[in-house]
Amino acid sequence: MATERVGVVGFGQMGAGIAEVCARAGLDVVVTDSDAAALARGQARLESSLARAVGAGKLDEQGRDAALRRVRAVTGLEELADRDLVIEAAVEDEAVKCALFARLDEIVEDPQAVLASNTSTIPIVKMAMATRRPESVLGVHFFNPVPVMPLVELISSVRTAPATAERAEAFVTGPLEKSVIHAADRAGFIVNGLLIPYLLSAVRMLEGRFASAEDIDAGMVLGCNHPLGPLALCDFIGLDTVALCAESLYAEFRDPAFATPPLLARMVAGGLLGRKSGHGFFAYG
Ligand code: NAD
Hints:
With 285 residues, the chain is α/β, with parallel strands linked by helices. Helix content is 46%, strand content 14%. An 8-stranded mixed β-sheet has the order 3-2-1-4-5-6-7-8, with helices on both faces. The structure holds nicotinamide-adenine-dinucleotide. Residues 9-15, 32-35, 38, 89-92, 96, 100, 118-120, 141-144, 237-238, 241 line the site of nicotinamide-adenine-dinucleotide.
């Protein structure tokens, strides 16, 4: 069954990237956000990412204009009624996501439609059980920046139907041309189960005055050939998102490796969210 009409919930960093790759693949995209100001920011993010692709010679101007025409940004979830696939990329908050899935269940008309979450850490079955069609719900976890990163993690819950997983995989590997890995439905899946404790260790190292932020990051960039150091990566992901991911991993495993370091919590409370707020562990112009 072909997937042609895609819905995206949340027009933040990830929602904008997901909308972009779907539109560039020739699909019709409706993207929604509860916040009108976020819609404007998402549209600006989409336009500047497409402009970068044109500048890098990866897209021509006609392709850019066609992609922009395929994305419709709206505030009402009701506009997702006719979608074949909806990808939820709202804030990493279990209550918000479960409420969204309950509404999507009421709104999306096709009983065969796939309802996917881009969650980094929240168990998929929780969102599935907020609907009356848990067999149609799965995790489709993209990486940031979506137009650049080749990977998608696919997560079936204990209630996901094989047909749902097959349809999602065909969509991701077909029109989106991404590689797929499969993970069980445990908080953090594969990548964030490994990445988040590493990032939190770097924050603890800074908090304990073991080394400067610059030296911690240089250690991993120059010593391990990582493209970004862990603190710059926290800034890139968003410190609020890193802290929310840590909370859901800690809730699942009760392992101190996943506990939010006080410095991270204080920075989030103080509005230092990384690149998106202009300041995190480093400053951005
Ligand atoms: P973000 O803060 O950039 O965007 C979140 C968006 O969700 C905001 O625009 C917000 O207005 C919107 N939103 C909040 N509540 C909503 C609701 N009820 N209905 C509709 N929209 C709502 O966050 P992000 O970095 O794009 O992360 C979004 C999701 O993607 C999270 O689940 C996160 O864990 C996951 N994710 C993030 C990254 C990353 O590197 N940032 C990578 C992979 C997955």
